[in-house]
Write a structure and sequence with these properties.
Strand order of the largest sheet: 1-2-3-4-7-8-9-12
Structural class: alpha/beta
Shape: globular
Strand content: 15-25%
Radius of gyration: 18 Å
Length: 288
């Protein structure tokens, strides 16, 4: 299989249906790439399908799945994976990611629930990821998920993620906000956690805002501005891994377009020093 980075760069934005019209005049100078949940677009035709096609013809795209339920006891949804494979080919989409969680148990649960942090669960999930990769014909990226309890844990979250990635030889979708949320809710150091992950496996990154339920309880909502701690952790990530493609997630409470695009621009601003360093190094190699 190819390397871990998806073929995207810069600062991206998740495309929601309610953004199709407001974003109609934007281009790759504003948004370098976009992301969609394939379940929301597979089989969509008519006016919406034509609008979506106009976006996939203008922007690089990645897919972020919602319902594969990679940690479920239910049989792996291979029908969905074949549909995703066709959808990606139809629209020239650059990669597919999913959550390291489950959302079904003999039926859809409509929530992302934690997988027990155990060696047995890691092996089980890795087998399902390997099968998914076999069907899609490429590595997929698995996202570090937010969680609010850790039932049956026998190892740390970090050890569990590392074990799954190693066993499945898959990529990591690094969610910076989820690290912040989990660090508050479970009392660990966000930077130490970041450094414990195999950052060379990161396909791309997510950043978002969250809700303060209490001083020691944060809820991952994607419905608020990105907080200072998340921007700082993103910068720390770039220090270690370079300016990896990063996407802003905003699912509701959508602000006016200038405000939304300013958050995307903030990603570019934080990436800029590391892009400059890369360009200088490349220039020196060319001259030699």
């Amino acid at each position: 299989m190819s390397g871990h980075h998806f073929d995207i760069t810069g600062a991206g934005l998740g495309l929601r249906r309610n953004l199709l019209t407001p974003l109609a005049e934007t281009d790759t100078a504003d948004i370098a790439f976009m992301e969609v949940a394939p379940e929301n677009w597979i089989g969509v035709g008519g006016r919406l399908g034509k609008q979506f096609r106009r976006y996939t013809e203008r922007f690089p795209f990645v897919c972020h799945g919602l319902s594969l339920s990679i940690g479920s006891r239910d049989p792996l949804n291979e029908e969905l994976l074949y549909a995703v494979k066709h959808f990606m080919r139809e629209h020239g989409i650059h990669g597919y990611s999913e959550h390291l969680s489950f959302c079904s148990d003999d039926g859809q649960l409509y929530d992302l629930l934690p997988i027990p942090f155990t060696e047995k669960a890691a092996g089980y999930v890795a087998e399902r990821i390997l099968r998914a990769q076999d069907i899609l014909g490429q590595r997929i990226a698995i996202e570090n998920a937010s969680y609010y309890c850790a039932p049956g844990a026998e190892m740390s979250e970090s050890d569990f993620i590392n074990l799954v990635l190693t066993k499945a030889d898959c990529s990591l979708l690094l969610d910076v906000n989820n690290i912040i949320v989990n660090s508050v809710n479970h009392g660990y150091d966000a930077r130490q956690f970041l450094h414990s992950l195999p950052l060379e496996r990161v396909a791309y990154a997510h950043i978002a805002g969250h809700y303060h339920e209490a001083e020691d309880l944060r809820v991952d909502t994607h419905g608020a501005p990105v907080e200072r701690e998340a921007w700082q952790l993103l910068d720390t990530f770039y220090q270690q891994a370079g300016p990896v493609a990063t996407l802003l997630e905003r699912d509701f409470n959508i602000p006016p377009m200038p405000v939304l695009l300013q958050e995307v621009a903030e990603i570019r601003r934080i990436q800029a020093p590391y892009l400059s360093a890369t360009d200088r190094t490349h220039g020196e190699l060319v001259r030699e």
